Amino acid sequence: MELDYRSTQLQGVTDLTVVARIKQGAVPGALNTFTYVDRLRRVLKVLNSIRQAGREAALDASPFPDSVARFRTVHFFRFAILPATDPAAAPQLLLNVTVDGGWEPYMRFIWKPMGSMLDLIFCHCDDYPLARLTSFADYIAWVRDHEVVGRFFFADSGATAADSHYHKRLTDLVLEQGNQSDFDAQASRLAEAPREANPERSAHAADIGLRALHAVAGLRELFPERDDRASAVPFNQEHVLRRFAQDLFADVRRWCINPGQLGDEPAWRVLRQMFEADMAWLALAPPPAEHDQRHAPRFSFEAVQAGIARPFPADVTHGALVLLRVTDAALARRWLANEKFSDGTQALGVGAVYQTIAVTYDGMQRLGAPRAWCKTLPREFIDGMEARAGVLGDVHANHPDHWRRPPRNWPLTMQGGAEQRGA
Fold first, then answer.
1. In what order do the strands lie in the sheet with 13-21?
2. CB 237 within 8 Å of CB 119
């Protein structure tokens, strides 16, 4: 039975749930006898404590950008360890997240900008491919294999995470400067993407950053500089932790490399003494990237349907769209092989007819394309425009339920006294 890979979406918000089996046994090389489950619990506890300290306990807002919120696309992000159902089974790690936009853009987001964080957490799971060592196609294949398909998704609002940030900033502006003459101009500028400001260079900011760093660096004894042989592709455990720390504390690392940036205040000297070992660890050179196997995608105009990336020649003045359904795969393949189609790059002359063809995901399956190959296609293509209506903004009057469809392909039917068109 083929899995239904369509995302659970609602008005531009996508929900994703992933469940993966946690490795069994002890972490190789750790000073204490820690299992992978034990270490994973420690990692999640430290990450959650850092967020609580920054969002709840701090008197002032943290000057450092949040590792997740900085991208302004994530609504909800949760990890949970599911206990084993019986002694022979292994615990599982659950990820549930809701994000703006579609499935594949989010996959690229977690593969690259958030890759070090996901690597730190999911490296405890069987066969997980580190984002920095894996091509995008292989990475999303692992996610698909461990995705739990949603059947019902509710969100109170279709507003994006960026909308929420904008409305908060607008409310703050109204309260602070609502009576100023240039209020309208300031409010309009809020719609622009906020620039990521560097945290102020002060002992206070350093104190906040170094204490959070100390919590992460405290995990070093559980991430020894030794390959994890329990993984499909062995990797250096310490490198995973240090790469995450250097991504999360990029500003703090610059201060650790050049302590003179913060001056020679007494408070700063005390902090340097307290966190000397942590600062030295963070200031180390980034883990080697010579094994990074990600390849930049190669773009070819010739592989893009004519009339999309490039216009048709100037002598094209009229067009017609014909919708076809594959009912005989062998006959359809012979017709495709013998018919001549144009890529639109060369003018065919006056009176000539340019023929192009586009095949849907369902059409490829009907033609007999291998299922394993079909699964590697972009998620947007697999879902199709109708399933992605909310993401594309086709809601209410523009929703697919209200589209006017060709009668020859969608014959009229009567249901509940109302005229409808069915496939």
1. 8-10, 13-21, 92-100, 74-82
2. no
Is residue 121 a contact partner of residue 44, using CB atoms and an 8 Å limit? yes
Q: Please, which residues have CB within 8 angstroms of residue 191's CB and are 6 or more apart in sequence?
A: 166
421 burial class (0-12, 13-18, 19+ CB within 10 angstroms)? Answer: middle
Whole-angstrom CA distances from 191 to 166, 198, 319, 377 are 7, 21, 39, 34
Q: Which residues contact 139 (CB under 8 A, 6 or more apart)?
A: 107, 111, 129, 131
Those residues whose C-beta lies under 8 Å from the C-beta of residue 369, and which sit 6 or more positions away, are none
Cα–Cα distance for residue pair 132/120, rounded to 1 Å = 11
With beta carbons less than 8 A apart as the criterion, state whether 245 and 217 touch: yes
pLDDT in tens, the chain (423 residues): 455 556 788 888 889 999 999 999 999 988 778 999 999 999 999 999 988 887 776 666 666 656 666 667 888 889 999 999 888 889 999 999 998 888 888 888 889 888 999 999 999 999 999 998 888 888 988 998 999 988 888 887 777 777 777 788 888 888 887 778 787 888 887 777 555 555 667 777 888 889 999 999 999 999 999 999 888 888 999 999 999 999 999 889 988 898 887 777 888 889 989 999 999 999 999 988 644 554 566 777 767 777 777 777 777 888 888 888 899 999 999 999 998 887 766 777 778 888 888 899 999 999 999 988 887 888 888 888 888 888 888 888 999 999 888 777 776 554 443 344 444
Closest CA to 127 of 76, 98, 90, 99: 90
Position of tokens 């060369």?
346
Residues near 238 by beta carbon (within 8 Å), at least 6 away in sequence:
220, 223, 224, 225, 226
pTM passes above 0.85: no
